[in-house]
Amino acid sequence: MEGRVLRSWVLVMMYLLGGCATTLGAAYQDQMKPETVARWLSWRASEAGRNLDEQSLWDQRLAQDVRPKLDLGDAGLARRAHGIYHQRCSPCHGTPGQKPNLPIAPALGGQGYRFGMLMGGDNMARGIFDVISKGRNQMPAFAGQMTNEQIWLMVEYLRSF
Ligand code: HEC
Question: What spacing in Å lies between the alpha carbon of 159 and ligand 1's midpoint?
Answer without folding.
Answer: 15
